[in-house]
Design brief:
CATH topology of chain A: Farnesyl Diphosphate Synthase
Number of domains of chain A: 1
Order of helices and strands of chain A: EEHHHHHEEHHHHHHHHHHHH
Largest interface: A-B, 42 and 42 residues
CATH superfamily of chain A: Farnesyl Diphosphate Synthase
CATH class of chain A: Mainly Alpha
Largest sheet of chain A: 2 strands, antiparallel
Structural class of chain A: mainly alpha
Oligomer: homodimer
């Protein structure tokens, strides 16, 4: 497992801490902005939204925005980067609310999901509120270029969600389609979050391209690891139950690889459990055995390392600073979660 | 019932036709833009979206945008007013898709609703797609002021939907709250649709204020009539079933007035049927009898005429042209639907 070598020459497990600590002031302001922008005369809106947005989450996406801005030398005292970071978190939260309705999820970050507490209807509508509020924030920032990036990213996310829905239960989904799905539903927002950080700092040349690529590859790696964790993680680390994807018949890379590499009997098993959702006691354990046999979780993590390496290299053009080191460590952290 | 006096001195029933015919060229371009902007590599998206957007609908909101722009002397050959009209229709369509999920509706415009054909999940996600695509269209138009108006309107719509959800089943909802709900869920988008027509024509002074007010009051009147029709309309005129609101326990003005004006026995009836949704054979007919007795549908239409009058007066500052006459007739049409 990758270790970080500290200044004192010691090795330690990669962590998000250095990045969080370098961006602590900005993130405190982001938290405040999030709370302020959830306000509404309709009490259910802040109540439901704060259940999801207020607590828990690692705030990876807004962290990317403020870190990118700072990496690009953003020193302005105004609050446009804070608004953009808030906007990114709201887009993410809106999609989580709608996802949990679509996936009939019970848990989110270890707590009951909003839909299981307030019902599907409230979750759909408060998700819409967060979506539209995020656009108000973008408009406040006042850059048409940034609006273009974030509105295109939002459309891609919606397309990715629909693509995931239609490819659900199709066990012969190719890896390429799976990649398109996770680019759309996860990586695109990571990419946009980082890209707009560069834009707000006025770095529209190579730095913007580099940070977009950093975000995209980090996002792909992040989702690959998430999908692997669903079969090998411990609930305490994930805030969701092991096997959720399996029970929902979600087509993720560990399943795709196990299906492709398996024989006739294995394939019948995957068709029954994933396509027909005809699941019995012991099926999840058997799925884990097949994945172990075919290295499909290990190779999913191998793919994640590949994208992680591309993310790291994307930062090559920036000079070495503690912030850059912290961003590189964030990539290692995203991958090391699986160990 | 109001009649329109033609040039030849004949009286005829108010119609949307004059407005549609004056804006026919623009509306053909809007139809084309709608089709083009629904495209996506994910086939389910245009398939589901065109089921709703492609056919049926009166396209009242985009019609307001192009008519307002033309009323304000917009002569430009570019397509910004077409994009804005498309954007407004997409926002409307997104909310319809989500509404039908939230209301568990079976019919929409006389056809099976999208959720009843493709399921709730697809409707939620394709609704998100239309929302985000509408923001891309706004960004294309390139005016931050217009983006501000439409993004604020979208947030208000989402707030209105949540407010409607939380006041659902509360029979003691005051008329003022009901008005807030219909302003949010219907009138605000009519208002924004008309307002951005003035803005794109560069009329940011009194014309913009007047058209915003025209749209708002027309929207309120329109929704009041819709809510009245739900108890007295014929299915063929409405594209939805008579009594839908009653069966869903929706608190609309006809119910509010009948409850307020009724005695103890009546109130028990409304509590049982609307709050507890404990409905039996003959309840809808009894509700209609109570409404007849207390004039609650008639007075809902009276309220609609009040807002209609304000809408008409808002156009006072514009000189008399066929287009203005057609807009005034559209107000009469919105109200006369109920007769």
């Amino acid at each position: 497992m990758a270790k970080v070598v500290t200044l004192e020459g010691k090795r330690r497990t990669p962590s998000l801490e250095p990045l969080l600590s370098l961006c602590a002031d900005d993130m405190t302001r982001v938290d405040r902005e999030i709370l302020a922008r959830m306000r509404s005369p309709v009490a259910l809106i802040p109540e439901l939204a704060s259940h999801l947005v207020g607590a828990g989450g690692k705030r990876m996406r807004p962290l990317l925005t403020v870190a990118s801005a700072r990496l690009c030398g953003y020193r302005a005292d105004d609050d446009r980067h804070i608004k953009l970071a808030t906007c990114v978190e709201f887009i993410h939260s809106a999609t989580l609310l709608h996802d949990d309705v679509v996936d009939v999820s019970i848990l989110r970050r270890g707590k009951p999901s909003a839909n299981s507490v307030w019902g599907d209807k409230a979750s759909v509508l408060v998700g819409d509120f967060l979506f539209t509020r995020s656009f108000e924030l973008m408009v406040d920032v006042g850059s048409l270029d940034i609006l273009g990036v974030l509105s295109r990213a939002s459309t891609t996310i919606a397309e990715g969600e629909v693509l995931q829905l239609v490819s659900q239960r199709d066990i012969s989904t190719p890896e390429a389609t799976y990649l398109e799905v996770i680019k759309g539903k996860t990586a695109k927002l990571f990419a946009a979050a980082a890209e707009v950080g560069a834009m707000i700092a006025g770095r529209n040349g190579p730095e913007r391209v580099a940070l977009e690529s950093f975000g995209m590859n980090l996002g792909i790696a992040f989702q690959l690891v998430d999908d692997a964790l669903d079969y090998v993680g411990r609930q305490a680390d994930m805030g969701k139950a092991v096997g959720d994807d399996f029970r929902e018949g979600k087509i993720t890379l560990p399943v795709i690889l196990a299906f492709l590499r398996g024989g006739v009997v294995d394939r019948e098993f995957w068709k029954r459990t994933i396509e027909k959702l005809d699941q019995r006691d012991g099926d999840l354990e058997h799925a884990q055995v097949l994945m172990e046999r075919h290295n499909s979780v290990a190779d999913t993590l191998e793919r994640a390392r590949h994208y992680g390496a591309m993310a790291r290299d994307a930062l090559g053009l920036f000079s070495d600073t503690p912030l850059k080191a912290a961003l590189l460590e964030a990539v290692d952290f995203a991958i090391a979660r699986a160990h």
